[in-house]
Amino acid sequence: MSANQTAAESGLDILGTAETWLGEGRRIALATVVETWGSAPRPVGSHLVIDEEGNFQGSVSGGCVEGAVVGEAIDVIGSGAPRMLEFGVADETAWRVGLSCGGRIRVYVEPVGP
């Protein structure tokens, strides 16, 4: 995000990507930061859009957990069932996904479209 681009504008870019991908017939999921604690690098409301091939745009953690979220999103696209994810130092996956800074994050992942 450039210095001149606000978080709201960035969110609109992500939603525009989601709309474009849906128009291309891609199956997608939207991941949204719904809660943070401590030093989580992205604010509540940050988005990541993922297609069934694992392509993504946006950020929910500045790179800390995107890989794990993309993998979960592909499962969500396949099953059609949304899922709440939680990452943090108290979680056994914290060191594997890189939230060693002390933050915690909850991300809601939902399928979008038909």
UniProtKB/TrEMBL annotation:
<dbReference type="InterPro" id="IPR003777">
    <property type="entry name" value="XdhC_CoxI"/>
</dbReference>
<protein>
    <submittedName>
        <fullName>XdhC family protein</fullName>
    </submittedName>
</protein>
<dbReference type="InterPro" id="IPR052698">
    <property type="entry name" value="MoCofactor_Util/Proc"/>
</dbReference>
<dbReference type="Pfam" id="PF02625">
    <property type="entry name" value="XdhC_CoxI"/>
</dbReference>
<feature type="domain" description="XdhC- CoxI">
    <location>
        <begin position="21"/>
        <end position="88"/>
    </location>
</feature>
